[in-house]
């Protein structure tokens, strides 16, 4: 019964500015594949799988990578040690580790990080109304005290390792279910402990731990937060969206319009329940708008292979930007339009091809898959594949006569028609046999 549920509350914000903004540069990306993504797997990654995924993340250019929860998991601890002891962390990459606001766990986290050059120590506690009232049975002051005490332990722990370039990160977990003024109060209190400056900022990471609203409400929450917090200059505002309503990417994009500097997510959106924000999709969204995504996505097939081998999860053929079928047209009118546009597309002009938002070649896909023929296709598609694979350019009258024969064959076999099958139909019906 839908009446059991209630709408997410609106944020009282006047003259919101985010709808008038555009994204002109990539945010700071942070991968949480090896932590949040890993925590969501039926079979968490082995150290070897983590090593493989780590190398891929570095290769595609991620500079901030959350590598685990070392105080809570021995494999995570061992993985952090492997990274440090084997010199696997490039100078321009910073690892991040998650920890609850508990002293013994924070101490063990610093132990795991011994010898690192730089790292983000990410402390969190839940702040939402439901968590306060129904899980922790604590009032607002009690929950705020957990956050500030955690912040103090994190700061004190770092003092034992002065040679390391530390960054502190705090997440009010379940932020989107937290009264906005209270979320600001808690984060301000954490920042009062850390005393960050514009030159030495902390990270305040605002998660939609569970996606509960339309992305415009999340954007309002971010804009309100950024404009009402005490020390905006001292914080990198980060967002961490989950995909319960299928809008994690949209929410992160609108959050960037609303002032977020940094976005956490995972490759192909692996993560708890419906997943985390998909870094590949958001980066490709920027790319297709002419914005440098600051990630090298020129080889998505390598990403898919490593992803499936490490997570044991399949990738949908309809996955935005990189799925096997996303540059394929079966429909006749689409095929016709694509063919015409590809013929007219000049080398030095902006991409203007109907039904293809980017040139598939940019991500290592050829035009082979762009036009495939089945019973939904028409003469445009059929002649495109004959020209491409056999160098045959059919006159229009022949296209018109051949198309229904191909369509009928496809209907009868209920399957795709490859160029070889189309060529056989052409031969059988239009080429006179030399035999008597
Ligand atoms: O989804 C979430 O709230 C988290 C936090 C630990 C940042 O993963
Ligand atoms: Zn999360």
General description of the model:
With 436 residues, the protein is α/β, with parallel strands linked by helices. The chain has helices at residues 33-39, 47-59, 74-85, 103-112, 129-136, 140-159, 180-194, 215-228, 248-257, 279-287, 300-311, 332-344, 379-390, 396-413, 419-430; strands at 28-31, 64-68, 94-100, 118-126, 165-173, 202-208, 235-241, 262-265. Helix 9 links the parallel strand 7 and strand 8 (262-265). The longest helix is centred in the middle third of the chain and has 20 residues, at 140-159. The protein is elongated, with a radius of gyration of 27 Å. The N and C termini lie far apart (75 Å). Bound molecules: 3-methyl-2-oxobutanoic acid and zinc ion.
Characteristic key phrases:
15 helices, 436 residues, alpha/beta, binds 3-methyl-2-oxobutanoic acid, 12% strand, single chain, 8-stranded parallel β-sheet, binds zinc ion, 42% helix
TL;DR of this structure?
This protein is of the alpha/beta class. Helices cover 42% and strands 12% of the residues.
Can you give the helix content as a percent range? Answer: 40-55%
How many helical stretches? 15
Mean pLDDT: 96
Ligand names: 3-methyl-2-oxobutanoic acid, zinc ion
Q: What class, by secondary structure content? A: alpha/beta
Number of strands: 8
Cα-based radius of gyration, to the nearest Å: 27 Å
Low-confidence stretches: none
